[in-house]
Structures are given as C-alpha cells and as structure tokens.
Amino acid sequence: MEYSWYIYCSIEMLLMTIPYYGINLYDYLTKSKPWRREIQKRKPQGIELKEASVLSHSITHLLIRSSVWYFHLHHSTMSNMNSISLVSFVLKMILYDGLGTVFHQYQHSSYGRVFNHLKHHQLRTPTLASSAYLSLGELVLSNHIGWIIIGFIPGSFWDHCLFLVISSLIKRLCHSNHDHPWENTKVYRWLRLVGSHEHHVHHLHPNKNFADLFIFWDKLFGTFLDPKYVNGIYKYDQVKAN
C-alpha cells in the first residue's frame, strides 16, 4: 500500500528526532565525561552562535525534505513499506559518505568558499550545540544534495529511513564534546566509523579528515590523520592552556 508523500515525510521527520535528541538524553542520563576542557581553553571559539539561524535552517530542511519525498515517490523509488534491504542501506551509507567527502573537500577549496564553510570552522572545539553553526549554502550541499542523489538507489521506505537516522546519528556524534565508550569498541573500529576524536582533528587541521561516516574514504584520498598523532586529542590531560 502506498501513501501520500506527506505521510512518508512526516514519519521521517519523527524518526529524525532520534539523532538530535537521543544523544543529548544519553549524555544527560549517563553524565558522560567531556574530554576537551583543556583544548577548549587552548583554542577559544571567540564567537557567538546566532540562534536565529536555527529557524531558517529548519524551514529549509522541511521544504527540501518534503520536495525530496514528493519527487522520489512520484518515481516510486522509495515507496515500499513492506520490506527492508540491508544491501540498499549499506550502499547508501557508503556512497553518501563518499559524496559528502568530495563535497566537503570542495568547500575547502578556493572555488568552494562561496558556500561559506569557513564560518563553521570558527569552531575549533565542536559540540552538539554548535554543530548546526553553518551557512544555508553548505547545509544544502553537505546534506540535501547527497540525500537527493542517494534516493535514486532502489530500496524501501524503511531502509532509507534507517540510512537517514544512522548517518545523522554518526554525524551528530562526530561533534559531541563527550567521550562515548562505544567509539573505542572493536566493532566500531572494525566498521571504520568516524568518531568524535577523528572529526575533532579536522577542526584543528582543516585539510585532514573530511569524511563524516567512514574513515576509509580519507585513507583512500590520502587525507586521514590519526588522532593519536595529534597533541591534545587522547592526551588531553597533558595539554595546558596558553
């Protein structure tokens, strides 16, 4: 059975609250330990986040995601609600991060600066609250263009939503200011997933670690920098404020 596009869009919006509020709730309940206090002192942000931008980002997100569902359901590429394909899910995760890595590198080039990604790099110590500090241009390029293209991969509604939730969850974790225990587990490392340590390296060294989901993309492009070689990432207790 197929439904109207806004039914699919509404379910997705509801599911997408998991990455945006689930991590905050986890940190609150477990009292996870922040691990960048000294780096925060050494690398002050020196900016004030503009809360007004949250509204424009939300409106843009809603309009684009609604358009995506309307377009793809018109072509029946994601309307199956009776099954789930793990192959489609994995393929979407890998290709989406590959596209994101290329787009991210482009935003750091002289031509890509029109998207004002450097605004986001005023954040030397990324946190969950500050991860949304970015321009509308890079919001569309970094997230929505990839989502539109990935939607062409045949699959069901559920494997696409699983892709959206898991990819957003990992991207949110990248900007966490807390040391989550699962980032150091054998499974997380075996899957070559990006953690908060890897992405924090990118904010200290903007020409390294462009990927949001999988480490192997940066290794493929020769842009990976292991956090253990960066002062203040793992041995943060030894870093002194200037």
TrEMBL record:
One of its GO terms (biological process) is lipid biosynthetic process. Keywords: Membrane, Transmembrane, Transmembrane helix. The chain crosses the membrane at residues 6-29, 83-103, 147-170. One of its GO terms (molecular function) is iron ion binding. Residues 90-223 form the Fatty acid hydroxylase domain. InterPro entries: Fatty_acid_hydroxylase. Signal peptide: none annotated. This is Fatty acid hydroxylase domain-containing protein.
